[in-house]
Amino acid sequence: MRRLPLHWLSVSSLGLVVLSAFLPWVRTGEATRSSYRLLRDLSTLGVLRSGPATAGRVTWVLLPAVAALALLLMSLGRTRAGSGVGALAAIIGLGGALTVLRSPVAALVGVWVMVAAAPSALTFCLLTVVVGDRRARGVPAGAAQPIR
User: Fold this and answer.
1) What's the rounded Cα separation, in Å, for the pair 133 and 128?
2) Looking at residue 137, what is its pLDDT?
3) Which burial class, exposed, middle or buried, applies to 57 when counting CB atoms under 10 A from its CB (0-12, 13-18, 19+)?
4) pLDDT number for residue 134
5) Among residues 95, 96, 128, 142, which one has the fewest Cβ atoms lying within 10 Å of its Cβ?
6) Domain ranges in the chain?
């Protein structure tokens, strides 16, 4: 039986991270809001005026691009570099979900999918960086391997 390369587990979980950002995150009044709609509403209300809040908003907006870059690098055979970028995307996603969980609004499905997907994406990405895909390429576990 052939094993699935480790970096494809990273790609799958990063896909869930990006998908969860577009799912409903909170309910305010009668409206459900995705993470991006929530950011837009907070920005309109003037809540995100400080430097760290603005940096967080810009980072969140770049989340799909960072995950896409990770996918591109992995598909080009740069699995360790792609996994490093993927770990960054997972950290961004987890930070956003934890921020919403600490707020006084009720978290919806998008937050909970992110809470499940981001740590698994981070774990798979870090494992790919540290261990690599030796088994998938047929390289014995103890053999030296060039860094890609």
Assistant:
1) 7
2) 53
3) middle
4) 57
5) 142
6) 6-133
